[in-house]
Amino acid sequence: MTQTWKTLSRATAAGLLAASVALAVPAGGVAAPPAASDRDATVLDLIPADTRDAMLAQAPLVDAATGIKAAVGATTRPGFAGIGLVGDHVVLWWKGSLPSDVAAAVATARRIAPVEVTAARYSRGELAAAAARLAPVADRHNAVHGVRLRADGSGVEVAVEPGATPPKLPGTGVRTTVVRAEELTPRSREDDSAPWSGGARIWAGAGCSTGFGVRDAASSAGYLLSAGHCGDIGAQWTDGAGEPIGTQTHKNADHDTMLISTPSPGGHVYVGGSHDTVRARVTGWTEVFPGQLLCQSGATSAWAIGRPICNLRVEFHYDDREDLVEATQLDGEDSARSGDSGGPVYAVNADGTILAAGTTTRSAGPGFGFQDFATARDDFGDLVPVTGAQTSTCRVSYVVTDSWATGFAAAVTIYNDGPARTGWNLSWTFDGGQLVQGHWGGVFNQTGSAVRVSNDAWNASLPAGGSVSVGFTADGPATIPASFQLDGDTCS
């Protein structure tokens, strides 16, 4: 049978950025906007067709990569070098033999998307140790603006300004390459109202953009996420027309993240022009991986071009004080403009909804730097995006991995944005007479058109911010169920 990898994604979960453009715009720095976009447009209408299709085709790859990343864990494992999306498959770079739990995660991921395990020359731990030895030299030398760890484990790159003489670098025992790259510089819609949406113009002495409405899963406190360099704790933020939003209460200067406290964070992002109402609904957040394609919708770029900037391909995660992610705009256009700082960086779903991926920090021509959403969670606790369905604590990605004349195979990934669960049950209803035949990853029961999947003993734990995947084959047409319920709660 031919693998079709159709994407019927209701959501996926899931960073790379690079070094130095804080985009802030002083008052009066914005000229007249272009004509507004069609008010009935969606984000899918505003993205070039080939870019849109390439982004949507990555949904199963992100699901598979996220499962592997969870097995690797937050603490770097011996042998691990990196994970990336390469063409139509996921690559896990590893030095030495895979531990049994990671091998099991790879086997599960291969039920969702093609996965290759490739030998790495160095582990991420070895690369990080080499980067630490290079950091003092980089900090002293003005022409050096970044140390990059290659996701494929092949070595370390030192980014140096074009035309500048590179410094003498110490020996590290790891292959080190000098690359010429313009330094990214910080980047900082005109009249929003509560509940506050992402991508809107905000002011506190200088202009930036809102990223995403978020809430603390433990306390339910509401905030707007944006870029740390835009302001300081205690700053009073307003929208572009001067309406008060709230007080800045949190900041991580190294990671360029900050929170503005507000009782009314919104679950949408502006994706059209500066003065239209075209917005996309946020349904969750996503990990980011090298090779992943993303969009950004900062307020100034919206004014300048009337659409999001997409085809931003993640290149590197930096391993330094800022710990940013670097991407490249593949069509050669400017990736961001002054005033885009803090604006939303996101992945696009097939139904026109979006997933929070991070917030804009820097740019230089097509070069783009952002902080990923996962790092904001590390900075400020168990943050989750406010979604169009405010009470939703879960989201589901449903991907058809194969199809034939009389049936299909599908992978279903559950993302938990609520409290940790010990034991879980997912249910949905088919609408075309589909009948489950084979399955993996859970205990399946079907009564008529209703399907219920319960955990196996080995995957009963579903942590806050975690995910789990199951799959099945079925007779009948490969259509997407209208809704999913996790332990009785409707997922986005």
UniProtKB/TrEMBL annotation:
UniProt keyword Protease, yes or no: yes
Which residue numbers delimit the CBM2 domain? 387-492
Query: What keywords does the record list, in alphabetical order?
Result: Carbohydrate metabolism, Disulfide bond, Glycosidase, Hydrolase, Polysaccharide degradation, Protease, Serine protease, Signal
Matching InterPro entries: CBD2, CBM2/CBM3_carb-bd_dom_sf, CBM2_carb-bd_dom_sf, CBM2_CS, Pept_S1A_streptogrisin, Peptidase_S1_PA, Peptidase_S1_PA_chymotrypsin, TRYPSIN_HIS
A Gene Ontology annotation in the biological process aspect, one of them, is: polysaccharide catabolic process
**Keyword Amino-acid biosynthesis assigned:** no
Q: Which Pfam families match?
A: CBM_2
Which GO-annotated molecular functions does the record name?
Answer: hydrolase activity, hydrolyzing O-glycosyl compounds; polysaccharide binding; serine-type endopeptidase activity
Extract the signal peptide range: 1-24
* Family from the record: Belongs to the peptidase S1 family.
**Protein name (database record):** Cellulose binding domain-containing protein
